[in-house]
Design goal:
Layout: E1 2-15, E2 19-26, E3 30-36, E4 53-59, E5 68-75, H1 85-98, H2 108-119, H3 124-141, E6 160-163, E7 170-172, H4 173-176, E8 184-185, H5 204-223, H6 232-241
Antiparallel strand pairs: 1-2, 1-4, 2-3, 4-5, 6-7, 6-8
Helix pairs in contact: 1-3, 1-6, 2-3, 3-5, 3-6
C-alpha cells in the first residue's frame, strides 16, 4: 500500500530512540498516523512541529498497519508562532478538534479550512474568526451542522441575527425579538451568506458571540456525550486572541 498527499502536522510522539509516530491531517486521506524513522532527530524534529505544512509519502504492507511516512517540509511556519501565545493555543486547539474526526476518513473541506486558518494565525482577531468558522465546519462534518440559511419561524433569508439553542436554526430579527434573551446572537461573519473574505475584522463582541454559539453546540453534541467539558486550550485561545468582556 502506498499513497502521497499533503498534510498538516497535528502531533508527534517519540518512538524508540530516534523515531517518532507522526499524526497528520491530510487532504485526501484524513487524519492519519505513521512512523517516521529519525523523526526525533535534529534534522526531522523541526519539520514535525504542530501546524507545519508537509508533503508525505505513506507506505505499509497492509492498509490496516501503522505504516511509514517519508515527510518533507513545505511551509515550516510553526517556529514563527512560538512568541505568540494565542497562536500556540490555537494550534493545540485546532489539532484537538481534528482528533474528533474518525481516523483515515477523508474530509477535504476540513483540511482546506484548517490550512487557511493555520496560515493566518498570526493576526489574533482574524485567527479568532477563522477558528470559530472552523468549529462550525467541524460540527457539520460530525453531523451536527447548524442551519443558518433561513429563519426557523418564517423561512425568510433576510436579517438572520439569532440562532435557536433548541433547533440550531437561524432566526430573523423580527421573529426572534420577543425571545432575544433566550437566543444566541448570530455574528454576520458566521452567517450562511457571509463572504469568504470580508473587509474589516469582527469586533471582540462578535467574536465572543461566535464562540458562545459554537461552544454551546460543541459541548452539547460532542463533549458532553463523552463525559467531557470544553477543553482548556479553547478557553486559553479565546482569552489570548479576544480577551475578556
Amino acid at each position: 500500500m502506498q499513497w502521497a498527499d499533503i498534510g498538516i502536522v497535528l502531533g508527534a510522539r517519540r518512538h524508540g530512540e530516534t523515531s517518532a509516530v507522526v499524526e497528520l491531517m491530510t487532504r485526501q486521506h484524513g487524519r492519519h498516523l505513521g512512523l517516521v524513522r529519525g523523526g526525533s532527530g535534529t534534522r526531522q524534529k523541526p519539520v514535525l512541529q504542530v501546524g507545519n505544512l508537509v508533503s508525505a509519502m505513506w507506505r505499509a504492507r497492509l492498509d490496516e498497519h501503522l505504516g511509514y511516512y517519508l515527510i518533507e517540509g513545505l511551509d515550516l511556519r510553526a517556529a514563527s508562532y512560538l512568541p505568540m501565545a494565542h497562536a500556540l493555543y490555537g494550534l493545540n486547539h485546532l489539532a484537538a478538534l481534528c482528533r474528533l474526526l474518525p481516523e483515515r476518513d477523508s474530509h477535504p473541506a476540513v483540511f482546506d479550512l484548517l490550512e487557511h486558518t493555520v496560515a493566518h494565525l498570526g493576526d489574533p482577531s482574524l485567527a479568532a474568526a477563522l477558528v470559530a468558522r472552523f468549529e462550525l465546519e467541524l460540527l457539520a462534518e460530525l453531523g451536527f451542522g447548524l442551519d443558518l440559511g433561513s429563519c426557523a419561524a418564517t423561512g425568510r433569508t433576510a436579517e438572520l441575527v439569532y440562532v435557536s439553542p433548541r433547533s440550531g436554526r437561524a432566526v430573523s430579527r423580527e421573529a426572534g425579538e420577543p425571545w432575544r434573551d433566550k437566543l444566541f446572537a448570530l455574528p454576520a461573519f458566521l452567517g450562511a451568506d457571509a463572504p469568504e473574505s470580508q473587509s474589516g475584522a469582527p469586533s471582540p463582541a462578535e467574536l465572543r458571540d461566535a464562540f458562545a454559539l459554537t461552544g454551546f453546540f460543541l459541548a452539547r453534541h460532542v463533549y458532553e456525550p463523552r463525559g467531557e467539558s470544553l477543553p482548556d486550550q479553547r478557553h486559553h485561545f479565546i482569552a489570548a486572541a479576544v480577551g475578556g468582556k
